[in-house]
């Protein structure tokens, strides 16, 4: 409290003042109580007014910025003013924007143990990096012994780091325990025999019947190997729901997700698979139980997956908004579409020469069906967010985009964009598209895919983001948790350094500049979800959302971004410490 002073400022009207001024000041002033935050530096991300030392806020909004306190006189005269100097040695940036997460996936993943190629720091727990087949099996046995779950589930296996895994191998390791291994991509699960029995699909006939349904490619569920992936995955998740979404685990997941957002400075996010796990109604009720609480310092935009928007899209949207919209959980006319498969599983569709081992990528939505879905929402006036990972998949998406009737005011966003060619990036720029990129591909997979699948040149040029910056493409960086941590400064560090797990710099010309990397977690991240008029920069009239940092990112430089510490957030004018 020693940092906070109270200033009571009374307006005195000069007797000879101009009549117009006297007329304007009659009656009560708006924003009677004002809080002014002082910082060592306020980085606004606004080119016209890039820095400040003071920002005035009231009722959750930004009233104005200044270099000196007395310059804010317009917002202090006649008002009760609190000057908060708690952050005089810190740096304020706009509240970070996470433009692509999956809260239901986050809730189900946070309570289960991670065994992955990289280390993880999560709320209340740490997981070491595990590489090699023997090391993976040893760690699996350890965490299995520590668990008394009826169905044991772990996440993070990747065959290029941990060796092959299938039902027979998992039966050898755990013959008497039901076990499910979630592959590093999240798009694939491996189930052993006891687990299949527990889930009621223990015979081949039961298994085939479960996955012989409309919209599921029958090759995406294999009884012999126990592998369930891509179009069959949601049905597999449905079978796992009682074990993933118990009341206890759901509450744990919600609490840990809130804390993870806070610790990493995220005040705005977008759910890019809304409704896909539990249905729109159930997920709305669950998310509102978190976001509508005054103790939750963040908001979320729900972007539904295309097949769940039934009937007229605009009627669906009007109904959902009427039932569930609130200040911190809300909908807009945006939809998620899917092209090709997972990047972490090498299921993305690649143009010739394809994969070095000759395997084929997979479609999440066949191109003809994707065209129909795209046209349906485009004609309804919606903005499109299309999951696409490989260059063959991108050719399909760009080809569909070029067939659409041009309209004003609609955005088309390429989500993930794991591998694109320079020619394709030119098309993205020429078409005026946006990109929401997942930069962690290059960090985790840059060396592994050079040896297996893509070769050294294509692997080095995954996440070709420097090219997009040179073409002035609006760009957001996202985690797609748990493909990467929900940690925007880490994502910015990856994109602006491109250093692999083994310490190799990959295609340095594709590094983002420091300025672009910071824009990609603030104002441009807000732009790709259509919220840059409200958040993403510190500007008059926007939400009073600030991330409090222990140092200036411009002083730290690109190399130091991941070492910056988030002290907490000011969300709509209220301070929430990270710890």
TrEMBL record:
Protein's UniProt keywords contain Glycosyltransferase: no
Keywords, alphabetical: Signal
Domain annotation Amidohydrolase: ranges: 91-574
Pfam family, one: Amidohydro_3
Signal peptide: 1-22
SUPFAM superfamilies for this protein: Composite domain of metallo-dependent hydrolases (SSF51338), Metallo-dependent hydrolases (SSF51556)
Keyword Transferase: no
UniProt GO molecular function: hydrolase activity, acting on carbon-nitrogen (but not peptide) bonds
Matches recorded under PANTHER family: IMIDAZOLONEPROPIONASE (PTHR22642), PROTEIN LONG AFTER FAR-RED 3 (PTHR22642:SF2)
Protein name: Amidohydrolase 3 domain-containing protein
Taxonomic source organism: Parasphingorhabdus marina DSM 22363
């Amino acid at each position: 409290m020693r940092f906070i002073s109270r200033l009571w400022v009374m307006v005195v009207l000069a007797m000879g003042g101009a009549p117009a001024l006297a007329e304007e000041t009659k009656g009560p002033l708006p924003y009677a109580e004002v809080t002014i935050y002082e910082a060592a530096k306020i980085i606004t991300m606004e080119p016209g007014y890039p820095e400040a030392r003071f920002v005035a806020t009231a009722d959750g909004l930004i009233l104005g910025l200044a270099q000196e306190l007395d310059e804010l006189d317009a917002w202090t005269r006649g008002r009760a003013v609190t000057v908060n100097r708690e952050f005089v040695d810190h740096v304020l940036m706009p509240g970070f924007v996470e433009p692509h997460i999956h809260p239901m996936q986050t809730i189900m993943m946070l309570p289960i143990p991670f065994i992955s190629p990289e280390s993880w720091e999560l709320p209340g727990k740490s997981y070491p990096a595990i590489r090699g087949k023997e090391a993976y099996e040893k760690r699996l046995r350890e965490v299995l012994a520590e668990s008394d779950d009826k169905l044991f589930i772990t996440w993070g296996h990747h065959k290029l780091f941990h060796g092959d895994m299938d039902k027979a191998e998992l039966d050898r390791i755990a013959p008497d325990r039901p076990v499910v291994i979630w592959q590093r991509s999240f798009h694939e699960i491996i189930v052993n025999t006891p687990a299949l029995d527990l889930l009621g699909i223990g015979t081949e006939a039961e298994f085939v019947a479960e996955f012989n349904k409309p919209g599921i490619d029958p090759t995406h569920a294999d009884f012999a190997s126990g592998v369930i992936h891509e179009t069959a995955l949601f049905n597999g998740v449905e079978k796992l729901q009682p074990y993933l979404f118990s009341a206890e685990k759901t509450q744990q997941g919600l609490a840990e997700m809130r804390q993870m957002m806070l610790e990493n400075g995220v005040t705005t996010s977008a759910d890019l698979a809304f409704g896909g796990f539990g249905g729109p109604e159930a997920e709305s009720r669950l998310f509102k139980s978190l976001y509508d609480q005054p103790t939750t310092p963040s908001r979320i935009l729900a972007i539904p997956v295309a097949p769940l928007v039934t009937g007229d899209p605009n009627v669906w949207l009007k109904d959902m908004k009427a039932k569930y919209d609130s200040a911190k959980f809300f909908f807009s006319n945006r939809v998620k579409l899917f092209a090709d498969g997972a990047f972490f599983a090498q299921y993305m569709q690649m143009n010739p020469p394809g994969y070095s081992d000759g395997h084929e990528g997979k479609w999440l939505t066949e191109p003809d069906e994707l065209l129909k879905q795209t046209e349906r929402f485009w004609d309804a006036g919606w903005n499109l967010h299309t999951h696409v990972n490989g260059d063959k998949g991108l050719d399909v998406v760009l080809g569909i985009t070029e067939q659409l009737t041009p309209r004003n005011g609609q955005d088309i966003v390429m989500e993930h964009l794991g591998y694109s060619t320079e020619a394709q990036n030119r098309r993205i720029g020429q078409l005026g598209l946006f990109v929401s990129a997942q930069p962690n591909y290059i960090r985790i997979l840059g060396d592994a895919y050079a040896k297996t699948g893509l070769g050294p040149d294509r692997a080095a040029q995954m996440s070709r983001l420097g090219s997009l910056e040179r073409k002035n493409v609006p760009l957001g960086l996202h985690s797609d948790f748990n493909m990467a941590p929900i940690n925007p400064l880490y994502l910015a560090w990856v994109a602006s350094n491109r250093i692999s797990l083994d310490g190799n710099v990959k295609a340095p010309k594709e590094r983002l500049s420091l300025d672009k990397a910071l824009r990609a977690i603030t104002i441009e991240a807000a732009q790709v979800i259509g919220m840059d008029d409200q958040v993403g920069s510190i500007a008059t009239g926007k939400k009073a959302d600030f991330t409090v940092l222990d140092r200036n990112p411009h002083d730290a430089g690109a190399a130091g971004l991941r070492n910056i510490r988030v002290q907490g957030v000011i969300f709509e004018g209220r301070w929430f410490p990270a710890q």
